Description:
The structure is a single chain. The protein is an alpha+beta fold. It has helices spanning 2-9, 20-38, 47-58, 64-80, 85-89, 114-126, 130-146, 159-173, 176-189, 194-209, 229-237, 284-294, 328-341; strands at 248-252, 264-270, 275-279, 299-300, 303-305, 308-310, 315-316, 318-322, 353-358, 363-367, 386-393, 397-400, 403-405, 410-412, 419-423, 437-439, 442-445, 447-455.
Amino acid sequence: xxxxKVQALHQDPKASVDNPLLAxxxxxxxxxxxxxxxxxDEATENIQALHDGFxxxxxxxxxxxxxxxxxxxxxxxxxxxxLSVKGMANGVFQRAGSGRPPLYSPGRRVSLSxxxxxxxxxxxxxTGDYYHSIAWLEEAVGLFRLxxxxxxxxxxSSLEDALDHLAFSYFMxxxxxxxxxxxxxxxxYDPSNQRVARNVAKYQKLLEMGTVASTGPLQRPNGxxxxxxxxxxxxxxxxxxxxxxxxxxxxxxxxxxxxxxxPAKKEVVWVQPYVALYHDFISDxxxxxxxxxxxxxxxxxxxxxxxxxxxxxxRISKSAWLKDTADPVVRALEQRIAAITGLDLRPPYAEYLxxxxxxxxxxxxPHFDHATSRKSPLYxxxxxxxxxxxxxxxxxxxxxxxxxFIYANFSVPVVKNAALFWWNLRRNGxxxxxxxxxxxxxxxxxxxxxxxxxxxxxxxxxxxxxxDPRD
Length: 471
């Protein structure tokens, strides 16, 4: 039965894990559903062969951290793109309460099972996030009710589990009467459960005493205390055609011999802060080479925290660093960056090329590329602050993944093989507050970028100070 289920999911050769629901269900199937089948009573006849085969590949399969991260990614997509949980469970990426077309329409719709929804809700429940746990557990309870009495090889949870967790979520959210109703329903299926029976008595007493204050709608948690969250999410939700006003396009040589025969195709995206997009900056073959070089070295991305660097929920991606000696393609790319920017990229005036992969729900909340404190690890290079950023899009995405500039109120969609350039510092060396930007979550697809951060030392005669100290 499990084999038939897996075969049905993979019968379409064009089905791609670009779809976040398909990616989540694949991770869950590899992490929890397979072991559930392998160690089931029905596998006893071939138990040793199954165990041996499973042990051979177990280390390569997704772990608990991967599965929980995938669940959090679905909640992140739900929040940032204002998606309906019921719609997501049915394979539709529709904004909640919206009559507008879906943000993403996969070629093949993939729905989530009751057990899938339960796992997402359980991840939220375990962190005390009842805003998300209620929405996902409600969906799980509804689906479990429809299939109650039938056994599914992939299910590790049940209607009773979903009711139990949903009742406590409502209790913690202040809705005692609904918690009582769900607990009573639980006891119909498991009347001998003393813990839930005590909960029923407790909820009845609280309601009789009338001490329960009426509660408003649950507030969505803001774990990273993001002050600009509404603007950030509105920018991420903008349709691709509504991102940018037309400014100017030109062929640029920048006075550099490298660009005389093939000028750069520059589109000025914004004036303050100055942001330019260089189209066809890299070829498909070069992009694939850089992704291939970085692939074996990818590690979870870190952020600066005081004088240290650490992992953070507000940056979900994997990254690797490439020296210009790694491959002639990297060296040629650095020469091209030097040509369009007119800046000195020789060590230590610029950092190595950073290659970043944003997978399922990958994102980077609003941040500055330049250091805002002298204690930042960026200053260890002894070459000053980051004066400029060049970000090259190495892949296309089907939906999401835009680069949003929060205070300037615009966003740039992913344009495959293009390079985005902006100044992080003003001419007087101060950080430009208008460059606060974010990588919107990838809604569908696999986003790859390459970042080149250039420092202020070595650029004194290439970008000199202005006569106006405020500039």
